[in-house]
Amino acid sequence: MRIQEPNRTGMINAYNKTGQTPVGKGRKLSMGKDEVNISAEALEMLKQVEDPDSPARREKIQRLKKQVEDGTYRVPSDKLADKILSFWRKL
């Protein structure tokens, strides 16, 4: 028994053509551009960040790394709770 699918090719072609827009003579299809938009909040956060190459920042990073390695680093729970609450209140 042989089953033929006469409309299969037609359906694939119809599907492929749905994304195309008709272009007349002399008209070119313009392509969109990629864009990156940085929010005002992100720009403000960038201003608040210390210079990554500053000696004070490098010293702080080394101190925190040592605390984590030694197991002496502790996150103050009250500060953590304040940050979580302020985040959820903004939403």
TrEMBL record:
Keywords of the record: Bacterial flagellum biogenesis, Cell projection, Cilium, Flagellum, Repressor, Transcription, Transcription regulation
Plastid listed as a keyword: no
One biological process term in Gene Ontology: negative regulation of DNA-templated transcription
InterPro entries in the record: Anti-sigma-28_factor_FlgM_sf, FlgM, FlgM_C
Annotated ranges, domain Anti-sigma-28 factor FlgM C-terminal: 34-85
Domain of life: Bacteria
Region feature Disordered, mapped onto this chain: 1-29
Protein name according to UniProt: Negative regulator of flagellin synthesis
Stretches of the chain forming a coiled coil according to its record: none
Family: Belongs to the FlgM family.
